[in-house]
Amino acid sequence: MSDLVLIVPEAFLLLGALVALFADVLARGHARAGAWIGAVAAILATAAALWAGQGAPALFVGQFAVDGAAQVARVATGLLTAAFLVWLAVVGLQRGSVRDFTALVLFSALGAMLMAAARDWVVMMLALEVATMPAYVLMGFDRSDVRGLEGALKYFLLSMVASLLFLYGLSFVIGMSGATAMGATKLQPGLVGALAAAFLTAGMLAKLSAAPFQWWAPDAYAGAPAASVAFVSAVPKVAGVVAFARVVLVLAPQAPSLPLLLIGAAVLSMIIGNLAAYPQTDVRRLMAYSGVAHAGYLLVGLAAGGEAGARAALFYGIAYAVPSLGVMLVAATVGNTLGEFRGLAARRPFLAWATVLMLISLIGIPPLAGFTGKLFLFTAAMGGGLVPLSVFAVVMSAVSAGFYFRIVRAMFFDSAAQDLQAPRVPAGAAAVVALCCAAVIGIGVAAGPLLSAISFTAK
Amino acid sequence: MPEQVALVPFLILAIATLGGGVMVVLSRNVVHAAFWLLEVMMAVAGLFMLLSAGFLALVQVMVYAGAVSVLVLFTVMLTLRRREDAIRSLDLSWSAAGIALAVLVAAAAAIASFTPTLPAAPVVTPGVEAFGRALFTSWALPFEISSVILLVALVGAVWWAGGGEK
Known about the structure:
The structure holds 2 protein chains of 2 kinds. Chain A is mainly alpha-helical. Chain A has one domain (2-453). Chain A is built from 21 helices and no strands. Chain A has helices at 8-21, 23-26, 33-52, 68-91, 98-117, 121-139, 146-177, 191-207, 216-223, 226-232, 235-251, 258-276, 283-304, 306-334, 338-341, 344-347, 349-363, 369-383, 387-412, 427-445, 447-453. Chain B has helices at 7-26, 30-50, 54-79, 94-112, 128-136, 140-161. In chain B, helix 1 (7-26) runs antiparallel to helix 2 (30-50) and helix 2 (30-50) packs antiparallel against helix 3. Classes of the chains: A mainly alpha, B mainly alpha.
């Protein structure tokens, strides 16, 4: 019975989501009370995840187990969700109700936490749906914006097709294994095993917005409120990487064609993401393509195979999520286009320097999180014998510096248009951005302990 | 030893399923397409009956034929203003057909090379009672997660449907 303590974080998130839905009744006259309730729930969930620990026996007849990777992903999801909700509680939304937004964010975090610990194909599939379904609504949260709704609809349709691919692949996998537990997976050699692995991989790639399933992301991001993009582009992906890593760890030894698919998707993602980001003038669109590119780097680690690659991929997932959340929160405060970033260094020096720090982490310059993350990824890829792919990824990281520096140039070297006012930055919002910066530095400096905390156990 | 199903009923139901599916895609009138969808769902329920999966057949009829198809029909009829709006343009894309055909051929080849290794069937087919017991014991976690999915869908639908715009 005491093992049930492992699932207490999820219970806190569910409870928080339900209470947040009634925030208007509980705290009359406080429009953003829902977000504060949600932030408290996320902090409690993080504390519970830390306190419950890991390594206890699997729950629910082995369908749910917390190993090192799940623990790290759950804590990271909880912290990022809490930081985002504090920001939301301080700043609020331009349009729409904060309580519904908070509830959807918590539902998504709940799905992400479940997904990280899922050890059964059915549980993983359902948790994946819980994590992504709120995202459709968040992306189209401004229901008066037709372009946003179109982007959300595209996201919904492609994500549903991805789920169907994943489910169709699962029907083969479960049919071949005769059981739904991931540990009992037995693929038959030949076409049917390769096809099942390919279906599962395609579903995961689409959920991670990796090429060749990336085309929904720029349209959906550009139509969505920047706050939605900040959450959706960063937080659920951490647990998504754990789920993808588990799929690869289970299937790759039995389906020899799987690493080839991953390498192809990695190369394509890096090329499309890094090159298509150059002409963008909308920060959300630029970050969408940057997200595609970073999914490509992650895939380099997964393609390397083995536990080393999976650990490096999860580390990089966190090292990507923190600055991505930070940059999009700045964009939600400052404005969505590069034009609105012009001269930010003169108007709001703190935001400008914070953005610079997070962008150079995304490029991968030492000693920040992005650099250590890429170092681990490419070391794992070298260890897996993928030397040309690692070299290509390093070249592509250098290419990415160009479009990130376009934001830097706009902030520092372009003068602002006359009518641009200094954006209102409440102290709490600045604190959240500062926290993201501290995390970017902290993860980079203290990378060793974090990496050694990530471990994948098969059972 | 694989159990056999009767060939003639299987062929009738299989043709009804596939033919109905083709008609869903090819019907110019969306109301007709929705009725063809209903027919496909019923034929699939028949296939389940043929495999002596009585409970699945019942669920298929109740949920898919009963609820989903009727929901589709309601949506179509509530959103159409005029009778002529039900006619949709039919743009047949060769590339989409090619991709669909490629996936179909690959899946068919995979299924042909596939030997299922399902656990041995029990002597007595477990009834609804055993199903319910399994659902609320060993399958409790997936069951509860599904209920959260429905809740999320509900919250999202209420938000998008609007109401009380402030």
